[in-house]
Amino acid sequence: MLAILQLLGAMMVLAGFAMVQFGVVRATSVRYLALNLAGSAILAVLALPERQWGFLLLEGVWALVSAHGLWAATRRRRRDVDRRAAGRRLDHPGEAAR
């Protein structure tokens, strides 16, 4: 079971990397960052009981950086949605009063 989880985590990180390299997604996309966060977190958690300190450091930092990037990407996305919604209200001021 642990081997399956390790493979799943590795495939998530590698899938995100491949998608960026082939131009399917950007490195700042929510999809890429979520794959990296999930995959690296799985691998970090699995490295802990085995005391694989180098691998834990690598995957733990990878997960933290991905989490920060995901947080920033979702903030950006939310801000853009709010701006578009505000623009629609300005285009149709009578609808905002309803």
Please provide a brief summary of the model:
This protein has helices at residues 2-21, 30-47, 53-91, 93-96. The protein has 98 residues and is mainly alpha-helical. α1 (2-21) packs antiparallel against α2.
The global form is elongated
Q: Span from first to last CA?
A: 56 Å
- Count of all domains: 1
Strand content: under 5%
Largest sheet: none
Report the mean per-residue pLDDT as an integer. 90
Number of strands: 0
Radius of gyration: 19 Å
Note the run of SSEs as H and E.
Answer: HHHH
Number of helices: 4
Description of the structure:
The protein is mainly α and 98 residues long. The protein has one domain (2-91). 83% of the residues lie in helices and 0% in strands. It has four helices and no strands. The longest helix has 39 residues, at 53-91.
Looking at this protein, list some descriptive labels.
single chain, 98 residues, mainly alpha, 4 helices, elongated
Give a topology summary:
Layout lengths: L1 H20 L8 H18 L5 H39 L1 H4 L2
